Amino acid sequence: MKLCSVCKQEKPIEEFCINKATKDGRNTFCRECAKKKKKAFSTSERGVIVTMYDSQKLSCRLRSHPMPAYTLNELQEWVFSQPNWSTLYSAWVESGYKSRMKPSVDRLNDFKTYSFDNIRLVTFRENESKGHKQRHLGIGTQGQVCKAVIQYDKEGKYIKRYSSASLAALEVPKANCQNIQKVCNNERPLCAGFIWKWE
Predict the structure, then answer these.
(1) Are 151 and 168 in contact (CB under 8 A)?
(2) pTM (two decimals)
(3) What is the pLDDT of residues 90-125, one digit of tens each?
(4) CA 162 to CA 139: how far, in whole Å?
(5) What is the rounded distance in angstroms from the CA atom of residue 116 to the CA atom of residue 77?
(6) What is the mean pLDDT of the chain?
(7) DSSP the chain
């Protein structure tokens, strides 16, 4: 048994995470208190900014972009100087910490790295919506993951190019994204009465 330094309750030793730096090889606080501490930090202003910065570094690694052009502390100063920070953060807290309401950093130009002249503060929902829109329109880094499709009539006459099957499905009556893709993959002859091919 061991006494938790935070909740002051005596608990089985297994309730304390391993920590080789301590005398008995376990943390001084229990797992439950550790979870509460982690949640408290992750929902604090500093915690949100640390998460933002870590996400930016991961994004840069995945896209082979240069690392952010600022340090964590410089990002924090910038965030606190933004006129919409308090509003965004308060709205997220009041929402019960809904993920889509969480403050997020959006790059104005997706092909450039994170720098103070290329970022703005938005909600995660706004950032996500921008990504979806870019994917549909075939623009920005999100648009690069889409495969354009070409629409032809039954005689093979060119009608129109769409930046993605999902965008074509939105614009063409009775068209379905999955069925357009099946036509492109030669798994069915037509979708909505048209021939479709990958660009």
Answers:
(1) yes
(2) 0.66
(3) 999 999 999 999 999 999 988 889 999 999 999 999
(4) 12
(5) 11
(6) 91
(7) -EE-TTT--EE-GGGS-B-TTSTTSB-SS-HHHHHHHHHHHHTSHHHHHHHHHHHHHHHHHHHTPPPPSS-HHHHHHHHHHSTTHHHHHHHHHHTTS-GGGSEEEEESSTTS---GGGEEEEEHHHHHHHHHHHHHHT-HHHHTT---EEEE-TT--EEEEES-HHHHHHHSTT--HHHHHHHHTTSSS-BTTBEEEE-
Q: Which two tokens stand for residue 180?
A: 């357009």
What is the C-alpha separation between 190 and 151, in angstroms, rounded?
Answer: 10
Position 164 scores a pLDDT of: 81
